[in-house]
Design brief:
The chain has 262 residues and is α/β, with parallel strands linked by helices. The protein has 7 helices and 5 strands. Strand 3 and strand 4 form a beta hairpin.
Length: 262
C-alpha cells in the first residue's frame, strides 16, 4: 500500500519536473551520447575498473534483465544533479520497456554531486532510502579518499546486488541500516503524501482535479505524455569493454532515487 501510493506521488511529481525540463532545455547542460554501459566523460574511472564495471553490467543485463548505466560528466554547467540525471534517464531510456528495470548512476566531478536514478520496475527494491545508503556509506567515503574508480565500482555492485537480491554484493554498512531507514522513510513519505492529497481535495476542483492528475500520471507511465529530449544513440557499440552493442530498452523513470555530495 505504501509503495503504490509512493509510486503515484512520484509519477505526479515527475510531470512537474518534466515540464520544468522542457522549459529550461535550451539553457541546461546537454545530454551526452550513450556510448556504452559505462560513459566516463569526466575521465575519472581507470581502465581496470571500467573493464570490471562493463563486464558486470553486461552480465547483469543478459542474465537478470536489469540494466544499469554509469555516467560521469566534468560539470553540470549550472544545472542541478536531480534535474540533469532525470533528463539523462528520460533520454537514454535505460531498462526494458515492459519491466522498467533500469537504473542510472550520475557523477558530476566539478560540483562534487552524484545521484542514483531508479526506473519504475526497481523502485520496490532500490528504494530512495537504500539509494541514499549506497551513496553515503559506500560511494562517498571512497570519493573523499580520491578513489573514484573504486567508489563507482562498489556503488554499482551494491545497486545490482539489491536489485537482484544478491546479498553477497551488498555492503554491511548498507545491509545493517536499510531496514530502519526504510521504516522511517515510509512514515515520513506517508505524512507528506497525506498533506499533498488533502490539499488537492480541499482546493477548487476537488476530486476532479485529483482524477485529472492521476490520469496524467498514468499517461506518462505508458510513455504518452513526454519522452524527454532525443539524444540517445540507437546502435552505438558497447564501449571498450563489455562486448556487443548497448542501448536503452525503452525504460521509464519517475524520479525515484537519491542524491549526494562529497
Amino acid at each position: 500500500m505504501v509503495l503504490n501510493i509512493r509510486r503515484l506521488f512520484k509519477r505526479v511529481a515527475s510531470l512537474t519536473l518534466l515540464g520544468i525540463f522542457a522549459a529550461a532545455s535550451l539553457f541546461a547542460a546537454k545530454v551526452p551520447a550513450l556510448k556504452g554501459r559505462v560513459n566516463d566523460y569526466a575521465n575519472i574511472i581507470n581502465s581496470s575498473a571500467e573493464e570490471k564495471l562493463s563486464a558486470y553490467l553486461q552480465q547483469l543485463d543478459e542474465q537478470q534483465g536489469v540494466q544499469i548505466a554509469v555516467l560521469t560528466v566534468p560539470s553540470l554547467q549550472g544545472d542541478d544533479i536531480a534535474s540533469y540525471s532525470m533528463k539523462v534517464a528520460e533520454s537514454w531510456k535505460i531498462g526494458n520497456s515492459k519491466t522498467d528495470k533500469g537504473a542510472l548512476l550520475v557523477v558530476a566531478y566539478q560540483e562534487h554531486d552524484l545521484r542514483i536514478e531508479v526506473g519504475y520496475g526497481l523502485e520496490d527494491k532500490l528504494t530512495d532510502a537504500k539509494c541514499g545508503l549506497i551513496i553515503r556509506n559506500v560511494i562517498i567515503p571512497q570519493f573523499k579518499n580520491g578513489d573514484y574508480s573504486e567508489g563507482i565500482l562498489l556503488g554499482v555492485q551494491n545497486m545490482g546486488g539489491i536489485a537482484t537480491d544478491n546479498a553477497q554484493l551488498v555492503s554491511r554498512s548498507v545491509q545493517n541500516s536499510e531496514n530502519s531507514d526504510d521504516d522511517i522513510g515510509g512514515v515520513i513519505f506517508m505524512i507528506i503524501w497525506l498533506i499533498f492529497f488533502f490539499a488537492i481535495i480541499s482546493s477548487k476542483g476537488g476530486i476532479w482535479k485529483w482524477i485529472f492528475l492521476s490520469n496524467l500520471a498514468g499517461s506518462h507511465r505508458r510513455g504518452g505524455f513526454y519522452s524527454g529530449p532525443s539524444h540517445r544513440s540507437s546502435g552505438f557499440g558497447g564501449g571498450s569493454f563489455g562486448g556487443g552493442s548497448f542501448h536503452g530498452g525503452g525504460g521509464h523513470f519517475g524520479g525515484g532515487g537519491a542524491s549526494g555530495h562529497w
